[in-house]
Specification:
Layout (H helix, E strand, L loop, with lengths): L25 E2 L18 E2 L71 E2 L18 E2 L6 E2 L14 E11 L7 E9 L8 H12 L5
Antiparallel strand pairs: 1-2, 3-4, 5-6, 6-7
């Protein structure tokens, strides 16, 4: 119990069933993390039989999804050819799988199992056809990193007491950017300064708000 990776029924295609586990133990699916953080998130470990119902929820089918592989498609997933049909020696087109990408952990092909600039996804084949297994990885177009990035964290308040300002920035990359940086700021107040009164606080507020030098 707690050892893996086993090749169980949850992996689809040709597999060992529960024979890779001793006695009455069963081969789980993506369950090894409960036995140790050193496992990969996709590792399957031997575990005691589950007492919970084994009925699986109905499969998710994307609108317009193909129910059977199109004629002539070479790699159509583990339900047909088994795993790792896409290899560096015979890379796949977009929507073909199963490829052995970086998110599979361990020794893998990276994105070399996909043609050109395509990348090997992770459990992403269902978008290309309902005939794929849930765990199949397909070649897909990379997500563009161009455009505006996420906002950075707010800076510390510019004043240790009284009213100051916090700022944050985000940056744009790619030819479509009209400018490369955006900034936001907001007023902040950590604590009152010694000897402050309402009038001084109002003046400080105006200094920050209007960028006056006070």
């Amino acid at each position: 119990e707690g050892e893996g990776d086993c090749d169980g029924p949850g992996d689809g295609g040709a597999n060992d069933g529960h024979d890779g586990c001793q006695g009455d133990l069963e081969c789980g699916s993506n369950n090894c993390k409960q036995f140790g953080s050193f496992y990969h998130e996709k590792d399957d470990c031997c575990q005691k039989p589950s007492s919970s119902p084994t009925t699986k929820p109905p499969p998710v089918i994307f609108p317009g999804s193909l129910l059977t592989p199109p004629p002539g498609q070479r790699c159509t997933g583990r339900n047909y050819q088994g795993r790792r049909c896409c290899t560096p020696e015979a890379p796949c087109d977009e929507g073909e799988g199963d490829c052995d990408g970086p998110e599979d952990g361990g020794s893998n092909d990276g994105h070399a199992g996909c043609k050109g600039d395509l990348v090997c996804g992770s459990n992403n084949c269902k978008q290309f056809g309902a005939y794929y297994h849930d765990k199949d990885d397909c070649c897909e177009r990379p997500v563009s990193s161009e455009g505006w990035g996420e906002w950075e964290a707010w800076s510390q308040c510019s004043k240790s007491c009284g009213i100051g300002r916090r700022t944050r920035d985000r940056f744009c990359s790619g030819p479509a950017c009209s400018h490369l940086q955006q900034s936001q700021d907001r007023l902040c107040s950590t604590e009152d300064c010694p000897g402050n009164n309402n009038k001084n606080m109002a003046n400080a507020f105006l200094c920050v708000l209007l960028d006056w030098f006070c």
